[in-house]
């Protein structure tokens, strides 16, 4: 009995194991099938996506190629039209220039025939005459200015010398005046002494000194008069810068004034 039960239990256990194995196998097959379906679906989706992307890329490339070809054709057409326009303009300008040159040549020829040649000769003579006259005037002005400049230098030299002489005279006059004042003071002092002197010898001595002072005073006054005469004569001589009329040279009268560099123009 126990053996039978054991056998039954073993058989039942084996059946359970077989059932479990079958269920596991079925589950495994189901999972494998689902995984295969998933992979197939993903592969189909990937292929569809790649196909769509390839078609889109090919379409974009086709459109870009067509656009580039169209732009190239349009650019070539524009260049052709521009070249044709430039060529037409150049030909037109060349024709206009040629026509203008022809008309200018005709006008010059007509003017040359209508205008006598002796007018050109007279014009040339006038131009040469004006040039020579201008040069002569310029040369004359240059020489005159140089002469005036030298005269001014000489006059300045004379004025400087005269100023130095006047300064020396004024200094000498000042010294003479100081000496005169000193002599007068000494003379006044002697006259005061004569009023109070009692001794005849002393009186004669003072009179002799007074006479000597009178002689010195007279000599001093004489020197002052001479120096003042020189000073007065110098003021008259300083008029050398006044205008002097020169003799006419070549029919032109020149009034020369060293103080006015434009005098005589």
Kindly state the mean pLDDT as a whole number?
79
Quaternary structure classification: single chain
Report the biggest beta sheet as strand number plus sense, adding barrel if it closes. 2 strands, antiparallel
How far is the first residue's CA from the last residue's CA?
Answer: 174 Å
Instruction: Please give the order of strands in the largest beta sheet.
Output: 1-2
Helix content: over 70%
Shape: elongated
- Unreliable stretches covering 5 or more consecutive residues: 235-265
Series of secondary-structure elements, N-terminal to C-terminal: HHHEE
Structural class: mainly alpha
Radius of gyration: 70 Å
Number of helices: 3
What proportion strand?
Answer: under 5%
Topology of helices and strands:
Layout: H1 2-114, H2 118-196, H3 200-237, E1 244-245, E2 255-256
Antiparallel strand pairs: 1-2
Helix pairs in contact: 2-3
Can you walk through the features of this model?
There is one protein chain. With 265 residues, this protein is mainly α. It has a domain at 7-113. 87% of the residues lie in helices and 2% in strands. It has helices at residues 2-114, 118-196, 200-237; strands at residues 244-245, 255-256. Strands 1-2 form a two-stranded antiparallel sheet. It is elongated and about 215 Å long. Mean pLDDT is 79; it is low at 235-265.
């Amino acid at each position: 009995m126990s053996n039978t039960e054991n056998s039954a239990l073993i058989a039942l256990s084996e059946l359970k194991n077989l059932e479990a194995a079958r269920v596991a196998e079925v589950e495994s097959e189901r999972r494998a099938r689902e995984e295969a379906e998933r992979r197939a679906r993903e592969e189909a989706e990937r292929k569809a996506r790649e196909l769509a992307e390839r078609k889109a890329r090919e379409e974009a490339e086709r459109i870009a190629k067509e656009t580039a070809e169209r732009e190239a054709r349009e650019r070539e057409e524009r260049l052709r039209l521009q070249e044709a326009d430039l060529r037409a303009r150049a030909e037109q300008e060349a024709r206009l220039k040629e026509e203008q040159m022809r008309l200018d040549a005709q006008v010059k020829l007509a003017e040359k025939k209508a205008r006598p040649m002796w007018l050109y000769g007279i014009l040339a003579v006038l131009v040469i005459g004006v040039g020579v006259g201008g040069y002569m005037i310029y040369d004359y002005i240059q020489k005159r200015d140089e002469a005036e400049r030298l005269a001014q230098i000489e006059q300045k030299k004379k004025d400087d010398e005269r100023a130095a002489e006047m300064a020396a005279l004024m200094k000498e006059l000042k010294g003479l005046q100081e000496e005169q004042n000193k002599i007068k003071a000494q003379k006044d002092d002697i006259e005061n002494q004569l009023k109070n002197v009692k001794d005849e010898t002393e009186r004669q001595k003072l009179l002799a000194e007074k006479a000597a002072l009178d002689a010195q005073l007279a000599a001093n006054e004489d020197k002052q008069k001479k120096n003042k005469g020189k000073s007065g004569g110098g003021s008259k001589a300083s008029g050398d810068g006044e205008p002097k009329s020169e003799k006419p040279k070549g029919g032109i009268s020149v009034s020369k004034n060293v103080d006015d560099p434009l005098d005589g123009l």
